[in-house]
Amino acid sequence: MPVPGGEVVKNDLHFVERMQRLVFDHRLDRHSFVIAVGGGAMLDAVGLVAATSHRGLRLIRVPTTVLAQNDSGVGVKNAVNLYEVKNFCGTFAPPFAVLNDADFIAMLPPRERIAGMAEAVKVALIRDADFFLWLERHADDLVLSEPAAMAWMIRRCAELHMRQIAQGGDPFETGSARPLDFGHWAAHKLEALTRHHLRHGEAVAIGIALDARYSVLAGLLAPGEELRIAALLEHLGFRLYHPALTQRQGGDGPLAVLAGLREFREHLGGELTVTLLAGIGRGIEVHAMDEALVAAAIAWLQDRSAAP
Known about the structure:
Elements: H1 8-11, H2 13-25, E1 33-38, H3 40-52, E2 58-63, H4 66-70, E3 77-82, E4 85-92, E5 97-98, H5 102-106, H6 110-115, H7 117-127, H8 129-137, H9 139-143, H10 147-167, H11 184-193, H12 200-217, H13 225-236, H14 259-268, E6 274-279, E7 282-286, H15 291-306
Parallel strand pairs: 1-2, 2-5
Antiparallel strand pairs: 3-4, 6-7
Helix pairs in contact: 2-3, 7-8, 7-10, 7-12, 11-12, 11-14, 12-13, 12-15
């Protein structure tokens, strides 16, 4: 059954209902397999169908994008968007198997290949300084989609995500911390503000740069490290500023992106917990964000984007 890729399949429950009807019409049972071949958004939606039909069918994911192969494909979350809130409706259900095939990556347009690399930078920054150094050294190879570099980047990124999920102590997010969502509080809001004209990875790259600069302004990260991070993201092909960052609620109210902090907290409940940086490869959790420093970090990104 073909379904749309991208956020379209997550924004309209019609597609979920059609897939559930297919499961029903074919009399699939809990010994059956659902095979999903596509990008991360499509895998999220099919995963929700598989997890909720008969209270759980076996799901095999075949990710076809960089982002899906190195991150969402190996995750345990399945979700769709509702009430203009990303991933509002969903479940936690590990896949039965994940099959990564590099041939899919070779078929991708450049924008899609680049977008998925943001998650590699993210997980390197919070968990593996050596991986960050590798990304810096091999940035040219990644930009050119050199097969061996792409394959190693995807594999290492997936390994780090799987390690966090399996050994981080909270695979089903019963607490308030989400270290793998470093840079995501702003990214999720930017996706909504731009009506998903920004790809998820593109929004995450902006969120990473924003939170890296914030970490410096808050005295958590050594000055100059945010320059390394921004330089790597830009080298990979990301633009680190979008006008939605300075959009204000009601035209003259607070910065609209700040609503992402409230939504981030509400998604898990409890106190706000945001992962920032104490160093390259070292994440640190904080429970408050200074809005003035967020605004200063945004201004830094805007100025950087305007520099010749």
